[in-house]
Amino acid sequence: MRVFNKNLRLQDVTIMYFTALAALMVILVASYQAPTNAVEVSILKSSPPSPLPPLPMPFRVPLDPLGDLQLAWNISYANQEVYMELRVKELKHGVVLGMSDRGELTNADLVVLWDSGSKSYFGDAWSDSEGHVSLDSQQDYELIEARQKPDGFYLLFKRPFSTCDPRDYLIEEGTVHVIYGLLDQPLPSLEQLNLSRIHTGVQRILMLRPDTPSPTLPPDVETLDVVAPNVIIPNQETTYWCFIQELPENMPKNHIVMYESVITPGNEAIVHHIEVFECSPDMPNVPHYSGSCDDKMKPGKLNFCRHVLAAWAMGAEAFYYPPDAGLPMGGPSSSRFLRLEVHYHNPLLIAGRRDSSGIRLHYTPSLRRYDAGIMELGLVYTPIMAIPPKQHSFYLSGYCTSKCTKTALPPGGIYIFASQLHTHLAGRGVRTVLVRGGKELEVVQEDKHFSTHYQTIRVLHKMANVLPGDVLITKCTFNTEDRNKPTVGGFGIMEEMCVNYVHYYPRTKLELCKSHVDPEYLQKYFSFMNRFHGNDRCVCGEVGVTEQYSQLHWDPFAGEVLDSLFNTAPISMHCNQSSARLFPGDWEKQPVPEVTSILEKPRYPCEGKPVTPTV
């Protein structure tokens, strides 16, 4: 066998040899050389450019169940940047922090600190559809400081809201799903990292917050703690604990002007969210109860404690009412009974931990000019509204019509200053928009990355003035790709809701402004779809709506027709007073509000215009 051609020259052999050697070197360098786009952390640690003044970090949240990782941040709207500080209690060989659409490890925007075995590096990275990590060619995370302190290792860095990099996450209003991971061994190359092979987790936060200063509380303010009575947190992953607390007898009317969370020290990473509800004033007595909210033996009257007074979620700040308004508490028109609901998230199944967390209400007997109120917008809780199975994005809209606002609102209208969005497990996004004269005027509140696991009252950047004759449209996005049957509206967690609880002043008698499609038109839909699929005998009217939805043959056409029905058919309006009775008038078979002009989508710096808060 002849290895070399007899005409092959020494020069050719030499070229082939060095070509092979160069190829081998490229492979070795790609695996082990210092990444060209990353920052060598050891250089920054040993010789910082100048002493850094302390940077205030007003927002902070524990990332993991033990609180070993903590994220703090601040916002510069002037520079359109977020400053972040990550504390790692015990750093081994690196840490990963990132953002993705819904907390997925795939297609995520990442910032990574890793140890190659001899040096440490910091860099902007991304993960592909299988969780493999690569260093980003465009480095948008800027490292400011990396330093070991007595309580852990600190990383201080910043990033623009919008980087115009298609692999980067756009930081905008609403929920941000933060993912994190810890590296237990050195990485000669970042490309060797796959997020599915390391310990990871997800935390949800509101990253962009209003930049307004906190109001000063009145000198005569008093406090009332509505807290869990030293309960033992069950050693299970999820617990909703309910507790009934009674207000002092004959308590006069006061105004709640601020509330804040009270978290038992050591439980900061377990107490996920807290809500306080006022019971119905129509019930003179509510049985005392402390136990699981899901207990089938709990008193039935707890179901009539639904009027939200306060809501807090992990990472949220204290909530302040506007200077001219306060939420009424006490007095003859209020209930003496409050229901506390605490959600414990205990994935490590920690046993024997006691908790007395809850909400501290700050109230004043010096009544402010206006009573604040809470109004429900969106869809009525009814199975008449439904989402077909196997839907990536299905939209449902609830209307507060011009006829209702013209009937119920005062001449100067109302001012919405905060809201709490709500869906169940299939909800992916919620948006409430104010329409005047057929034109979308402003977005009241929007969350494109909404999660039912993170619901809190959100202060608007700018109050929305709703006038008589205006329309409020609340539109929800749902995903049912993992479901084989239709999802109907209702109170069950596997049923759905589309609601925005708006906080406003001055308080009116209008407590609920919601809609659903006209039932007769829905029956026409069932009849048409059954005939279309060759079923001559329709059971329309013989069984309930939920069963009729279940019996349909759900193909793409059935979903498209239902979507068209919901967007065009007449609606039934629930324009309800606080007594639960409708305002006088005809509210059946009302036309869907017409929108002739929609708002332009916000543009970002790479498109020539800076971002400003939209709500």
Terminal Cα span: 79 Å
**Strand content range:** 35-45%
Biggest beta sheet summary: 7 strands, antiparallel
Helical fraction equals: 10-25%
Please provide a brief summary of the model.
By secondary structure, the protein is mainly β. The protein has six helices and 37 strands.
Description:
Residues 67-183 form the DOMON domain. The chain has 615 residues and is mostly beta strands. Helix content is 11%, strand content 38%. It is built from six helices and 37 strands. Strands 1, 5, 6, 7, 8, 11 and 12 form a seven-stranded antiparallel sheet that branches. Strands 13, 16, 20, 21, 24 and 25 form a six-stranded mixed sheet that branches. Helix 4 (519-532) runs antiparallel to helix 6 (556-568). The longest helix has 23 residues, at 10-32. The radius of gyration is 28 Å and the shape is globular. The N and C termini lie far apart (79 Å).
